[in-house]
Structures are given as C-alpha cells and as structure tokens.
Amino acid sequence: MMDAPLPPLPPQMFTTSAQLLDLTDKKLLVSLRDGRKFIGVLRTWDQYANLVLQNTVERIIVDDMYCDIKRGVFIVRGENVLLLGEIDLDKEDFFPYRLAPHKEVFARQLEVQQEKKRKEKTHKKKLLQLGFETETEVTGL
C-alpha cells in the first residue's frame, strides 16, 4: 500500500525572515554574534530580520550565576543575530543558575575575560614559536 504524499509546506516555512511571523508577540531569547544574550517580547521585524524587542533584559551568565540588566525597547540588527528561540514560559522560572548581584557577576566576568586574553596570548606565542603567524602579524595591524 502506498503512503499518501505529504502536504506541501506553508510558504512561511522557508529560511527567510517570514519565519518570524509565528514568533511575533512571543518572549524570545536572542543570542548575538558578540556573545550577548537578550530576552524580550518580539514586537516587529522587517525583511532583513531586524528585530524590535520590548521589555528587554540583557542576561549575563558567568559560571553558575547570572544577572539581568533592563534594556527596555531594544532594536537588534538582523545580521548580528546568531540564534533566536521562543522561551518556554512554563520552564522559565526553573533556570539552572543562581541570580547574583550585578557587581558580583561583573567582577567574575572581568576575571574570566582576563583569563581568556591571557590564554589567547600564550596560544599565539606558542604558534609563533612553531612558525605560524596570526593575521595581525601578517597584515601588520
């Protein structure tokens, strides 16, 4: 017995900004290329996937703690969006990290960034010893 053919996909299911249609007026997590994460309600968008978020907070996560910084209405340029997804409102209150004061999170974030820079510097130094050059040494920037 032959299976019936699958129905065609609706036109908004293709990889265009039209996929945002179903996410309008829903709470989203938007992760940017620079590593920042924003949570807000998607109010509008355009053909370039530029987003307007309302009641936006920037969530900073370091180790096992996080803090939220209120940003209000926030415009995100589409080319900077790395990932976005709808937040499950039933699971939102069960975040696996602990809420910490801003100062504590910022201090730890600074430590992590400095450690990352130190490791990157050591890594570049080892590569140079092995005969590899990074882009900045080649271009002289």
TrEMBL record:
The keyword Ribonucleoprotein applies. Keywords: Cytoplasm, mRNA processing, mRNA splicing, Phosphoprotein, Ribonucleoprotein, RNA-binding. Coiled coil: none annotated. Gene3D superfamilies: 2.30.30.100. Pfam families: LSM (PF01423). InterPro entries: Lsm1, LSM_dom_sf, PTHR15588, Sm, Sm_dom_euk/arc. One of its GO terms (cellular component) is Lsm1-7-Pat1 complex. One of its GO terms (molecular function) is mRNA binding. Component of the heptameric LSM1-LSM7 complex that forms a seven-membered ring structure with a donut shape. One of its GO terms (biological process) is RNA splicing. This is U6 snRNA-associated Sm-like protein LSm1. The keyword rRNA-binding does not apply. Component of the cytoplasmic LSM1-LSM7 complex which is involved in mRNA degradation. Belongs to the snRNP Sm proteins family. Residues 15-90 form the Sm domain. It comes from the Eukaryota. It comes from Terfezia boudieri ATCC MYA-4762. It is found in: Cytoplasm; Cytoplasm, P-body.
